[in-house]
Structure to design on (299 residues):
DNA sequence: ACGCGTGCCTGTTGGC
DNA sequence: TGCCAACAGGCACGCG
């Protein structure tokens, strides 16, 4: 279930492998995975990947089509089980492969100083011919191909809140205020702050000592500021650890993250709190599985 | 306008 | 041991 730190890690490990490569072919194994932009497929052939970056939980790939046409963007949402692989040219699809991009001039396996866990070294395929796989077991993930002008017509993109790591805690705290719903629901609301999912919502609420079901409107600004600071600290630490791997998540090198070893509450229902020893309680808040500590998160 | 419940999916897990 | 319901969860959508 890739959230901000996992998507950031995927981008960091994918970017050095495919930036500068030219798209030589596209295969759509599951049509619904290409959620928008099929009309741009002809332009994609021959386009050069110029940039790979992250916005919220989206993996963004920018391309320069031939003939000086306007840049294209591919926006991938991995949802729960979306994954990227860079395979040798000609590799056959796997059971859950949904899209394949043939690439020329790729650098699979190239080193990336941004993540300590990458394999490193020179291109695994000396001729640079590779296949980018987008796999997704549960088929919730998607790819949209767009031009710059299309972003304004994409409600989800337009409504996205600010990046939590690029926003001052005081500003985030003010955005958390005034919602008549649970603070956990507020953290998960992508229009309030972008990129937070179930793991980092639960973990930051524990860190800040706030009950996940507490109404946001009932929390003071200092406590919401503490929550924003906890959220930032946890996201930064998780990025350092290359994200959390529960079962499906792997980065674009196929490697797992290690932040799951730092979980205080997520996935620890019924186990003792590492801070106070109370038994962690599992329940449902904002429609999601939620774990909290009754001793450390009283309100 | 906002908050909430449901559907989309398939592999894994746990209870009987 | 085998079966099957419950579960995982981001987001679009419909409802009140």
């Amino acid at each position: 279930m890739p959230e901000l730190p996992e998507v950031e890690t995927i981008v960091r490990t994918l970017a050095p492998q495919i930036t500068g490569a030219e798209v030589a072919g596209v295969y759509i194994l599951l049509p619904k995975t290409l959620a928008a932009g099929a009309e741009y497929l002809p332009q994609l052939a021959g386009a050069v990947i110029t940039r790979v970056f992250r916005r919220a939980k989206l993996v963004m790939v920018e391309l320069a089509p031939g003939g000086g046409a306007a840049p294209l963007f591919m926006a991938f949402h991995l949802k729960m089980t979306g994954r990227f692989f860079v395979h040798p040219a000609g590799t056959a699809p796997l059971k859950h492969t949904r899209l394949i991009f043939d690439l020329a001039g790729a650098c699979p396996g190239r080193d990336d100083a941004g993540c300590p866990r990458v394999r490193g070294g020179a291109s695994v395929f000396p001729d640079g011919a590779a296949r980018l796989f987008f796999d997704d077991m549960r088929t919730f993930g998607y790819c949209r191909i767009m031009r710059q002008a299309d972003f304004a017509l994409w409600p989800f993109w337009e409504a996205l809140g600010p990046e939590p790591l690029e926003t001052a805690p005081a500003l985030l705290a003010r955005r958390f205020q005034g919602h008549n719903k649970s603070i956990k629901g507020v953290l998960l609301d992508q229009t309030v702050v972008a990129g937070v999912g179930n793991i980092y919502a639960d973990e930051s609420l524990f860190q800040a000592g706030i009950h996940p079901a507490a109404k946001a409107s009932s929390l003071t600004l200092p406590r919401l500021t503490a929550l924003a600071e906890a959220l930032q600290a946890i996201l930064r630490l998780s990025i350092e650890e290359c994200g959390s791997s529960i079962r499906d998540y792997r980065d674009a090198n196929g490697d797992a993250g290690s932040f799951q070893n730092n979980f205080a509450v997520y996935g620890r229902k019924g186990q003792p709190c590492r801070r106070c020893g109370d038994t962690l309680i599992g329940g449902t808040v904002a429609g999601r599985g939620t774990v909290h500590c009754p001793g450390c998160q009283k309100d």
About this structure: Chain A is about 25% helix and 25% strand. Residues 1, 3, 57, 77, 79-80, 138, 140, 156, 188, 190, 197-198, 246-247, 287-289 of chain A lie near DNA strand C (CB under 10 Å from a C1').
